[in-house]
């Protein structure tokens, strides 16, 4: 039983909250609608201010909803527009906190999985895949997730999936080759094997042949063989990203190294990739195979410093890391940045 006066208070609170959220949505929507490359710095600055003034949860949900509505349509979205939207997410991810990128990524991946299962007719899958590809291009997510998605698509291997594999490889193929050439090679071998076994089933043989040619071009690092491949726009926006990200080491430290399986089962096993995300469900399943060793690395620290750390009895990784940071920092700001990481 809830007494009337308390009930009244709750109702007014809900109305107030709803009104606040409506106002927030309008503001974010206005900023996203004006988003373009020249005004990216001012818009990302205003978004950061909104993050400081409102609760992170509300901001993350509002931003994700608006971006999903803008980018996930039944017709193919212009690549440029996609890149600018994702670049905004990546700047907020680096400047505000990794939960921004993590929230958006989870929503995109879940939607992609759902649409792939339901065989959506429109271009929604391609649009979602483009979002994931650019999240990887702008260092929000690690190549591990991209390889997971590619493996999943190769294992299904219908005409729709071949289309999506081609689309993804065209967007991030050469970056994947730089990041993990061995995994790409294994993927190509697996795709060739699948193509040989599925030769009878698929009517459109030219598509499969084209996919295999693209993969071979990737393996041989031959950009000319891929029609319509143009790394210029992504490179240009990456440069812009470097100027807009405050932290010195933009990129590798804040990349979310999370697998497809973890993202899809986040509600069951918690979000270990977000620092401080509370988890009240069943204890996390201890799977020895998928244990990734989390190592604290202090970049390349000279053996002299390590020897000093040993002499000062810094006997755990964390202690050694903190000691090395304090000893090798240029000034207090540098030390602060490194300690946060």
TrEMBL record:
Sequence similarity: Belongs to the CWC22 family.
- Compartments, record wording: Nucleus, Nucleolus
Molecular function, one GO term: RNA binding
UniProt keywords (A-Z) are: Coiled coil, Nucleus
Report the function annotation for this chain: Plays a role in targeting PPP1CA to the nucleolus.
Gene3D superfamilies recorded: 1.25.40.180
Q: Which BP terms from GO are recorded?
A: ribosomal small subunit biogenesis
Organism source for this protein? Chunga burmeisteri
Pfam families the UniProt entry points to: MIF4G
What protein name applies here? Nucleolar MIF4G domain-containing protein 1
Give the quaternary structure. Answer: May interact with EIF4A1, EIF4A2 and EIF4A3. Interacts with PPP1CA and PPP1CC.
> From what superkingdom does this record's organism come?
Eukaryota
Q: What is the lineage of its organism?
A: Eukaryota, Metazoa, Chordata, Craniata, Vertebrata
The coiled-coil segments of this chain are 181-208
Could you state one GO cellular component term attached to this entry? nucleolus
SUPFAM superfamilies the UniProt entry points to: ARM repeat (SSF48371)
* InterPro entries tied to this protein: ARM-type_fold (IPR016024), CWC22_splicing_factor (IPR050781), MIF4G-like_typ-3 (IPR003890)
Question: Residue limits of the MIF4G domain?
Answer: 25-222
